[in-house]
Specification:
The chain has one helix at residues 3-14, and strands at residues 55-56, 67-70, 76-80, 86-91, 97-102, 107-111, 114-118, 124-129, 133-136, 142-145, 151-154, 160-163, 169-173, 179-185, 188-194, 199-204, 207-212, 217-222, 226-229, 235-239, 244-248, 253-256. With 257 residues, the protein is mainly beta. The protein has two domains: 1-31 and 65-156, no CATH class; 37-64 and 180-257, no CATH class. The protein has a ten-stranded antiparallel beta sheet, with no helix packed on it. A hairpin with a 5-residue loop joins strand 13 (169-173) and strand 14 (179-185).
Length: 257
């Protein structure tokens, strides 16, 4: 089993699905349905509707029920996710992470310089990770770093972010199943598309143009409007005509500012 397959396995254990351009072995994960994009008023034709399903909420409200616990040293010791799943983290005398236990009792344990997988009966599995790294940051984000620099980040909100070696977010899988993919050129966002292929927005020159599921350019464009991703994965649409920002957080909640 490859390291990327293992990353798919660990997200399946979490209760979320790691989504990549590879096919995971049967049984490791199931397909997550992607809801058709809707605007705030429920229509399917407005420009904003093409940016995905909007769940409007107050900017001060956090919609997920994630819970992060810490040990006496202030390190993350447990994360309880909105869907009820959890992960527990243990550290060695050096303060470094050396065990990750899932809700079902299966775990990854650090043995020397490698990570070894055990099932919930404590039986060693035929999975060993060498140079690939597993970590949890101070916010409770569970990080799987691959040899090539790519990383898979499971957030307490239940979202799964995929970043390339440059730190750019290439995919966000939201807690309720919607998936967004992003493409860059020289570090600049140039394309945003839905995982189901129903639509994509592409930056042609200085203008964002909407393309349909067949790759044909439509009449919808964004002139002075802007689209970008913030470092935490918040997806932002700026309406130049009104000066309004529409932000979709990684928990799937959308706020207007």
């Amino acid at each position: 089993m490859s390291a990327r397959e293992v990353s798919g396995l660990q997200d399946d254990l979490l209760g979320t699905t790691y989504l990549s351009d590879m096919e995971l072995p049967a049984g490791l994960c199931s397909d997550v349905p992607t809801p058709k994009p809707l605007s705030a008023d429920g229509s399917k034709d407005s420009t904003l509707s093409q940016f995905g399903k909007l769940t409007l909420c107050d900017s001060a409200v956090t919609t997920n029920n994630a819970h992060v616990e810490r040990n006496l040293s202030g390190k993350v010791s447990r994360v309880v996710y909105p869907n009820g799943d959890s992960k527990s983290f243990e550290y060695g005398p050096d303060g470094l992470l050396n065990k990750i236990e899932y809700k079902d009792g299966s775990c990854f344990t650090k043995k020397g310089s490698s990570w070894v997988l055990y099932d919930h009966y404590g039986r060693k599995q035929d999975v060993t990770l060498g140079k690939d790294k597993i970590d949890v940051d101070s916010d409770g984000n569970f990080i799987f770093l691959f040899n090539d620099g790519d990383r898979n980040i499971s957030t307490p909100s239940g979202a799964v972010l995929t970043k390339d070696k440059n730190g750019s977010i290439t995919q966000i899988a939201y807690p309720k199943g919607e998936i967004k993919e992003f493409k860059y050129v020289d570090g600049k966002l140039v394309e945003y598309r839905s995982k189901d292929g129903l639509f994509s927005w592409k930056l042609d020159g200085d203008t964002w143009n909407l393309y349909d599921e067949h790759g044909a350019r439509t009449r919808e464009t964004l002139g002075k409007d802007r689209v970008w991703l913030e470092k935490d994965g918040t997806f932002v649409f700026y309406d130049a005509s009104t000066g309004q920002l529409t932000k979709t957080r990684t928990d799937g909640c959308t706020v207007k500012e």
